[in-house]
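Progress report, Aim 2. The chain analyzed during this reporting quarter is listed below.
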Amino acid sequence: MPDDLQDFAARYSAAWSSQDPARVASFYAEGGRLVINDGEPSVGREAITEAARGFMVAFPDMVVALDSLHQGAAGVEYHWTLTGTNTGPGGTGRAVRISGFETWTRWDGGRIAESVGRFDADDYRRQLDGDAR
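Predicted structure tokens for the chain:
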């Protein structure tokens, strides 16, 4: 685990906001694993780069802000808010603001070995579709 988790989390947020998906993957161990909303795990830096790229392409103006950081029973909880406009290829042109968190459960040499992330997918879809419900 990194010595200064707050600094690590701030730099991780900046990486997600950078439009450089390899920068996100650099925070993970070589065989690191990222799972988003119980989806198929992205395993290894190449797969994590592609997962990050998907969000960055969809939201060219994406900003991920660090909301809070907690040491929980399951691991370190990194809470974030993503804002951006879905103007990537095939995008809706709509702005989104979603909050979620990742639980970093394992570490390898100061890098994330496993991260399990969650956000409200229904709210995300409503915002993309323009449904004000």
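Residues 109 and 126 are 39 Å apart (CA to CA). Strands lie at 28-36, 42-43, 63-71, 76-85, 95-108, 111-119. These observations will guide the mutagenesis work planned for the next reporting period.
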